Amino acid sequence: MGRVVPEDAAAEIRSDEHRAYPQAFRSLAGRRIRHLTTSSKASRTAKNPLFPVNLADLLLRHGSANHKRETIAFSKRRQGALYRAAIWVVWRNYMKPRSERRQDAPPGVAIGVISERLSISDVLAQRRFPWRASLSGWLERCYFGRIPTRRWTRLRSHDLAYAV
Questions:
Q1: What's the distance, CA 3 to chain centroid?
Q2: How far is CA 75 from CA 55, 57, 135, in A?
Q3: CB–CB of 90/120 below 8 Å?
Q4: What distance in Å separates the CA atoms of residue 57 and residue 67, rounded to the nearest whole number?
Q5: Residue 13 and residue 29: Cα distance in Å, rounded?
């Protein structure tokens, strides 16, 4: 939350009733956080306030072997899990319809970020270079593969010689 909610800002957070969340929110000094909770025993239908995050969790686990509960396909490094999650975010927000039955527009179209659903060709049509967009901090470290994995003491990062 420290990366997403700037100091002196207000945010409304919806979560289940896990006891760790209020403690974590108290550690974020200078932020006004309104914390709304929903029982984790409540049915996970579209009427549940946590439905969007429950659906995202379901889709991520369904489509990625490394995110299933019991698996031998776990990500060996945090960086690998972040890369897969980034690909999933692009697919979910810019390519996949919100409803399989209606085959409507993806969320990116619904909120006006893009004008129409993207195809794989659209996504891969032009390479994105980091010097054409302002990357800093955590996002820059993620892009260049410098997110450490806690159990590994020596972080090896692949420095691109020809691609960048």
A1: 13
A2: 22, 17, 25
A3: no
A4: 9
A5: 16
